Amino acid sequence: MPNPADVAAIHDLERQRHDAMLQGDVQALDALFADEFVFTHSDGVRDSKDVYLGKIRNRVFYFSTMEQPEEDIRIIGDTAAVLGRMVATVNVPAISLTKVLNNFYLAVYARTAAGWTLLAVQPTPAPAAAAA
């Protein structure tokens, strides 16, 4: 059984990550992400930490709403996996797009000497039945 303090720490980091995404807080995200961080978008495009943060900094996309109605944290040793769901409104100004996302996601954290750090995030569109 995982240590409740570790589960609470990962839950708090996820809240910080989602708050920073909603606020476009690149500095906060930079502190949460490992140097090796990779974001794999639901269309398969992969962004390194620098590329992903650059997209947020330059408002290639931004979120106007974001909720996490589901979160299941699983920890084995020094690795934590968050199986969550995110419902959000994303805006892409360059193509005048506003879209509601209903995604399941996997976020992977690793415990280092400095504490927990985020290694990867991958969202997947939820099936229509999960939208209800």
Automatic annotation (TrEMBL):
**In its UniProt entry, what is this protein called?**
Ketosteroid isomerase-like protein
Q: Which SUPFAM superfamilies does this one have?
A: NTF2-like
Which Pfam families does this entry report, sorted A to Z? DUF4440 (PF14534)
InterPro entries, from UniProt? DUF4440, NTF2-like_dom_sf
Q: Which residues form a coiled coil?
A: none
DUF4440 domain residues? 10-117
Task: Determine the domain of life of the protein's source.
Answer: Bacteria
Q: Which organism is it from?
A: Labrys wisconsinensis
